[in-house]
């Protein structure tokens, strides 16, 4: 565990569909002599969809600064996007590089993504340009089959507007520590019945909706390394969700590459009803969360397994409303991974000791790090927000908008299997 941390700025921008176009093309950028664009719809539901766009520099010289342009043919609207600055005027969409991905070497590719809304038909756009030059390449017109159980509560939805980067300086990346024994004070989640593993989905930002939960293949930090990640869900047994993820990540072992997670509630938008969220902290409602999981490390990993709670100062945040506070509850860590900020105290909650860290990445981040690893816990997460409120750090006027449970991976190869995960509000 390290007290000192390095925080890098948010590198992925999310903008609304109504944002004004400041400049249609980047006049200072090198002209793309040859380019290709691949477009596909990777997830679709009743009124929304997730799109994937890949730009390849098929020329012989580097592109230093790029702006993608295309036109939606069927009235689709961009709700939010990542890995670039997305704007839309009428049916015309413009995406400018995010700065960190502005240079495209000859033969290199950059992947973008967005969430949008549609009605009637969801025909794929054509006529892609980069820096004003027409691009060729394949355009996937097939759309993903709608998920029958997905009923977003708002027309603007987002499955993957990544959180700000959090970095650590691990004390060791080669060792894979053995988890400590679980104290008897920690209750055990009720496992689901044995089920076969669901179908893997390895698409970046894939959203697998199941009842009030959805599994998010969130790879918000992948630009800081190389690798891939897959997710699957095995279904519900009562209120318990069974799901899993596997990963292979290499690169900078001080930066998070991904956070595959089971989401209840908001994540830059809404995807399911019946969540019981948002709920104001002043209401004093219990947030009872149970989690049974198993970590398999194929290689040594720098990683953690943690709850991630998001809070807003409004009752009904949408995709464009960043949180004001983030509360993480770490149950398991490996390879020297540590949270953002500096250690403030050691506290006892639910009969277990936790190191409390405080930091800021554009919003306040509070991390409760369990002093010994566990793979099973039943907690009232309100106990953690109450601790912060008692310190005067978190106002009870704030609204809890999301409860997520997943694994932050810095580097390594492995797998997380959740046999039972449930959250009950009130």
Automatic annotation (TrEMBL):
It holds the Pfam family Glyco_hydro_12. Transmembrane segments: none annotated. Residues 144-192 are annotated as: Disordered. It comes from the Bacteria. Keywords: Carbohydrate metabolism, Glycosidase, Hydrolase, Polysaccharide degradation, Signal. The keyword Signal applies. PANTHER family: BLR1656 PROTEIN, XYLOGLUCAN-SPECIFIC ENDO-BETA-1,4-GLUCANASE A. This is Cellulose binding domain-containing protein.
């Amino acid at each position: 565990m390290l007290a000192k941390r390095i925080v890098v700025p948010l590198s992925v921008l999310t903008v609304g569909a109504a944002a004004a176009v400041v400049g249609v093309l980047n006049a200072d950028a090198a002209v793309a002599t040859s380019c290709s664009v691949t477009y596909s719809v990777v997830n679709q539901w009743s009124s929304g969809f997730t799109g994937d766009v890949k730009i390849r520099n098929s020329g012989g010289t580097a592109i230093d600064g790029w702006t993608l342009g295309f036109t939606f043919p069927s009235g689709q609207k961009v709700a939010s996007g990542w890995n670039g600055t997305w704007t839309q005027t009428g049916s015309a969409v413009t995406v400018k590089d995010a700065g960190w991905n502005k240079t495209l070497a000859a033969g290199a590719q950059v992947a973008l993504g967005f969430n949008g809304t549609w009605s009637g038909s969801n025909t794929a756009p054509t006529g892609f340009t980069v820096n004003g030059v027409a691009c060729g390449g394949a355009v996937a017109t097939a759309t993903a089959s709608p998920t029958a159980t997905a009923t977003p509560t708002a027309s603007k939805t987002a499955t993957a507007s990544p959180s700000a980067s959090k970095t650590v300086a691990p004390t060791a990346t080669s060792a894979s520590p053995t988890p400590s024994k679980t104290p008897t004070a920690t209750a055990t989640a009720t496992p689901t019945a044995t089920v076969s593993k669901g179908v893997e989905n390895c698409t970046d930002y894939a959203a697998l909706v199941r009842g009030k939960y959805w599994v998010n293949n969130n790879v918000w930090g992948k630009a800081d390394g190389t690798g891939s990640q897959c997710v699957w869900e095995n279904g519900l047994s009562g209120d318990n969700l069974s799901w899993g993820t596997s990963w292979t990540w290499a690169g900078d072992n001080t930066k998070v590459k991904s956070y595959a997670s089971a989401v209840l509630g908001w994540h830059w938008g809404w995807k399911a009803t019946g969540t019981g969220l948002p709920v104001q902290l002043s209401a004093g409602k219990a947030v009872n969360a149970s989690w049974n999981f198993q970590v398999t490390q194929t290689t040594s990993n720098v990683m953690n397994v943690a709850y991630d709670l998001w809070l807003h100062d409004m009752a009904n945040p949408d995709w464009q409303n960043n949180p004001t506070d983030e509360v993480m509850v770490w149950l398991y860590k490996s390879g020297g991974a540590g949270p953002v900020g500096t250690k403030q105290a050691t506290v006892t909650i639910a009969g277990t000791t936790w190191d409390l860290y405080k930091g800021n990445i554009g919003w306040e981040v509070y991390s409760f790090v369990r002093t010994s690893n566990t793979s099973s816990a039943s907690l009232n997460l309100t106990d953690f927000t109450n601790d912060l409120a008692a310190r005067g750090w978190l106002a009870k006027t704030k609204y809890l908008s999301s409860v997520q449970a997943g694994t932050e991976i810095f580097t390594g190869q492995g797998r997380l299997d959740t046999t039972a995960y449930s959250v009950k509000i009130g």
